[in-house]
Amino acid sequence: MAQPDSFGRYRVVRRLGSGSFATVWLAHDDLLDTPVAVKVLAENWAHQLDVQQRFLEEARILRHADSAWLVRVHDLDVLPDDRPFMVMTYADQGSVADLVSRGPLPLDQALRLLTEIGQGVTALHRHGIIHRDIKPSNVLLQSSPVGQKVLVADLGFAKSIDHASGFTAAAGTPGYMSPEQGSPGGDIDVRADVYALGAVAYELVTGRRPPGAPVKVPPRRLRPGLPRALNDLIMSALSEDRSARPPGAKEFTDRVRAIRMDPHLRTRVPWALRYRGSLLRSAAGVLAAAVLLGAAQASAGRPELAFTEVQDATGAVSVPVPRVWASQLQANGWSPRELGLVGGHEPGLLAATDTARWKSSGAPSAGVFVGLLDRSGSTPRLESVIDSGPCPGAPQRRSYSDAHWGGEVWQWDRCPDGSSFSAAAVRPHEGGTTVYVEVRSPWPRPDLVDRVIGGTRLT
């Protein structure tokens, strides 16, 4: 439909999205001077009384539940063509689906989200309601004075627990829908929502939507180091036998909260997973951002390597890389949020013999990755960036300092095929942007790592 000027007193700004039954618009309440979301029944359903009734029932449920963890309904009205619309809380930070699309989340962030989602679902259960369609896109995020706030939304499939027996139609989204929801006329209860919470948890910690039931691959297999208690909770929630699941959203949420309170919890994304999603997006083909600026010799007694300078697509970062390693270049940047750090899409590049195999633990390629982290504060210690390396054993740790940079380097020398992997976090002595660096070499080369760091420049 064309963008209208207003819905009642609510001035339309732009469309936020649309589904099978409704369209959601960003509007402004000029009377109260605040942004709102307006959900309007789609024109093709205007004369379907059962669909209208479902739409109105969603508004009533949200209004009666009135929880801090649910989208709130502020107004309900009807357009001149008899289509109902509801005025709701505007979630200005998108949805959980937007977060997980970038890859698995740092564990503390995933557990916080699960706790708050669980509280929203618990509020519904206390009001006698089964959601029936919990998934990342139905969990919205809103700015608040204390940080990001979770709001469970879209109750179009919600039903009263008192009428849960013998639903006439299957409802839900494959992957998040419990097995009993797939059968029309099935007898469901709150444990259908527990299954969906388990599916959302699976996706938050692995970056992958779980397969249909039965789920045979536990999340710990996809994310080594995941706490066993969390792995077991997710798998029990995803059980085909609902009697094996936690009995309700409150019990599920209480167990998530207990795991999060473990003082020994390792929260960051393992190295092997953090390049999933949009960590590095290459342009179509290899970018012609590599500019030959000269060559240099490695230290005496080492294999000699000629270097070339490569730049990211914005020209913000230039890095010296051994010429033989720079056969492939991905230069369109990265997102520090993949490491659980602050930052949006930042300048960065990967130059390697085979960029597709850069994260492989079996036969990795040689190369260099450099990405900008933040633009203020002190240099982060590597513990805040990387919780484990791609190679066995503890790394050799050393401080790094030259005329321009200061920071630290970790190096692993027992990598597959005898290769060596180094990670560094450095910052200019005069302050400014912190840079994260990774170097993978066929042999241990601290001098080569230092050459890469020392020659990196920001413009």
TrEMBL record:
<keyword id="KW-0547">Nucleotide-binding</keyword>
<dbReference type="Pfam" id="PF00069">
    <property type="entry name" value="Pkinase"/>
</dbReference>
<keyword id="KW-0067">ATP-binding</keyword>
<dbReference type="InterPro" id="IPR000719">
    <property type="entry name" value="Prot_kinase_dom"/>
</dbReference>
<feature type="binding site">
    <location>
        <position position="39"/>
    </location>
    <ligand>
        <name>ATP</name>
    </ligand>
</feature>
<dbReference type="GO" id="GO:0005524">
    <property type="term" value="F:ATP binding"/>
</dbReference>
<dbReference type="InterPro" id="IPR017441">
    <property type="entry name" value="Protein_kinase_ATP_BS"/>
</dbReference>
<keyword id="KW-0418">Kinase</keyword>
<protein>
    <recommendedName>
        <fullName>non-specific serine/threonine protein kinase</fullName>
        <ecNumber>2.7.11.1</ecNumber>
    </recommendedName>
</protein>
<dbReference type="InterPro" id="IPR008271">
    <property type="entry name" value="Ser/Thr_kinase_AS"/>
</dbReference>
<dbReference type="GO" id="GO:0004674">
    <property type="term" value="F:protein serine/threonine kinase activity"/>
</dbReference>
<keyword id="KW-0808">Transferase</keyword>
<dbReference type="InterPro" id="IPR011009">
    <property type="entry name" value="Kinase-like_dom_sf"/>
</dbReference>
<feature type="domain" description="Protein kinase">
    <location>
        <begin position="10"/>
        <end position="265"/>
    </location>
</feature>
<keyword id="KW-0723">Serine/threonine-protein kinase</keyword>
